[in-house]
Design goal:
454 residues; globular; mainly alpha; two-stranded antiparallel sheet; Cytochrome Bc1 Complex, Chain D, domain 2; binds heme C; 3-stranded mixed beta sheet; 40% helix
């Protein structure tokens, strides 16, 4: 089991994700709810109107949803903590689990506070819906070394829950101690990301998940052999047959299951998120809060919970200055590290590894577009403090080193992004940026790494 924060208050501090397009009007109506509503008559009227429109949709939607959907918050440990019990999963335990219809219901989920701002960017769940049974199967496969050629390596060997779902080594270490030449990126918050790998060569998380199994220097197996191994295991076979009727164990279904598990690995609210969520109330005085208390007790309760959570997870003064700097034109980090997951999901040459004798070409190898030379995918800054070393080549050991790289304007090369320029940062500015990035860390879900089919 890995550490997490099961603080029940966080349950409320999340937002619902509406997978069907029909619900999108609700999303439009929603932000208004968080706006100080009692201040102007116009906004009250607007809200009444929108609520009427929205409730018509809610009624229709919930009628349809009630039968088929279950609401859950991603990060909820009940999704990832494994089938209750200890030791290897027995056939009887798996039968009971797989025969429970509730485990096959597509989940209607919310994202945690912070990440929830990206609910419009959720990827992959329409074609591959989340169910408890599929998440649990993906969890088992993620931690199962039997998927590798010599039973020594699982996905978790290089994406370790205790190391921010990355690895402490500069390069990933696969079967027979072989190493590649790129750093293991984090495997969380993938639900907001489509193209995978540093160069984005996998179009989806499903495509990505089957890659390492057959990569000679990673799990060193073949897809045929991995499928045969999984098929020969009664516990796995039972689950695949129930989750994927008429298909059973295939390499694609292995990929779908692992991707589903990965989509539940989300970062919970960080000190940064609590501070941001309180911003709309910054100019409220005592009278405003009294008014809110009587006019909108629900909003007042939410505010009270937020305030308590922010006090328990404070941002230092340095982190607050770092936040402003990060999003300022002066440091310009948010030219690329932007949005709910603090990444634009784009590809940029920031001058990493460009002084190597044969520099890696990154995105160019996929697109063949000269402007993509040396461009790599922008990684998330969420929980980045846990996943050193940094960059596609693992060349920077600390966040201080990362900031220094940007301060000097990266390594000059013909394809350097126009957004990478020498920055005029004082030692305090640099410390502030690091403090801010550390304040972007929130709890990861509790995950059981041990309970696998016998
Ligand atoms: C030997 C170490 C190793 C193993 C084992 C491994 N990975 Fe990775 N993983 C890496 C490296 C290194 C990369 C980056 C490769 C690249 O971009 O070319 C990566 C990339 C990824 C990414 C892309 C993240 C992003 O931001 O684009 C995901 C997701 C991922 N791995 C999940 C998995 C899963 C699932 C498994 C098991 C089926 C697995 N990995 C097995 C080392 C490993
Ligand atoms: C032009 C876009 C761009 C700008 C501006 C930018 N970054 Fe990045 N950032 C990236 C890309 C792309 C990578 C990965 C590059 C690589 O590995 O070659 C990255 C990597 C990082 C990493 C390492 C993450 C990891 O998991 O390895 C951190 C930390 C980071 N940036 C912080 C910052 C900070 C702080 C700033 C502002 C001073 C900043 N970035 C400005 C695009 C950008």
């Amino acid at each position: 089991m890995f550490s997490c924060n099961d603080d029940p208050t966080l349950l409320f501090l999340s937002e619902r994700f509406h997978p069907s397009a029909r619900h999108s009007r609700l999303q439009l109506a929603r932000p208004l709810k968080n706006v100080p509503s009692h201040r102007s008559v116009t906004s009250v009227l607007c809200i009444v109107l929108l609520t009427l429109v929205a409730s018509a949709f809610i009624d229709r939607a919930t009628a349809a949803d009630k039968s088929s959907k279950r609401r859950v918050r991603l990060g909820d440990p009940s999704l990832t903590a494994g089938i209750p019990g200890t030791g290897p999963l027995t056939g009887a335990q798996l039968s009971k689990w797989i025969n429970n219809p509730a485990n096959h219901v597509p989940l209607d989920f919310k994202l945690p506070l912070g990440l929830a701002a990206g609910k419009g960017d959720v990827q992959g769940v329409k074609s591959n819906p989340l169910t408890r049974a599929k998440i649990e199967l993906g969890r088992q496969l993620f931690f199962d070394k039997r998927l590798s050629s010599d039973n020594t390596i699982s996905c978790a060997s290089c994406h370790q829950p205790g190391h921010g779902y990355a690895a402490a080594t500069r390069f990933g270490v696969g079967v027979d101690g072989q190493t590649g030449d790129v750093n293991s990126p984090v495997a969380y918050n993938r639900i907001l990301s489509s193209r995978q790998f540093w160069d984005g060569r996998a179009a989806s998380l499903e495509d990505q998940a089957v890659g390492p199994i057959a990569a000679p220097i990673e799990m060193g197996n073949t897809h045929e052999q991995a499928v045969a191994t999984v098929k020969a295991n009664d516990g796995y076979k039972k689950q695949f047959d129930a989750i994927y009727p008429n298909e059973g164990v295939t390499i694609d279904n292995i990929g779908k299951s692992i991707a589903t598990f990965e989509r539940t690995l989300v970062t919970g609210p960080s000190p940064f998120d609590f501070a941001e969520a309180l911003k709309p109330y910054a100019n409220y005085d005592a009278a405003d809060f009294e008014e809110m208390k009587s006019d909108d007790p629900k909003e007042f309760a939410r505010y009270t919970r937020l305030k308590a959570a922010a006090a328990a997870n404070p941002m230092s003064e340095s982190a607050r200055r770092g936040r402003d700097l990060f999003f300022s034109d002066r440091a310009n980090c948010s030219a690329c590290h932007v949005g709910a997951n603090l990444t634009d999901e784009g590809f940029h040459n920031i001058g990493i590894g460009m002084d190597a004798s044969i520099p890696k070409m990154g995105r160019f190898t996929v697109t063949k577009d000269p402007k993509d030379k040396g461009a790599f995918k922008t990684p998330t800054v969420r929980n980045v403090a846990s996943s050193a070393p940094y960059m596609h080549d693992g060349s920077l050991a600390t966040l201080e080193d990362v900031v220094e790289h940007y301060a000097i304007g990266g390594t000059p090369n013909p394809w350097l992004s126009k957004d990478i320029v020498k920055l005029n940062l004082s030692p305090q500015d640099k410390a502030d940026l690091v403090a801010f990035m550390k304040a972007c860390s929130g709890p990861l879900p509790r995950v059981n790494s041990e309970r696998l089919p016998q």
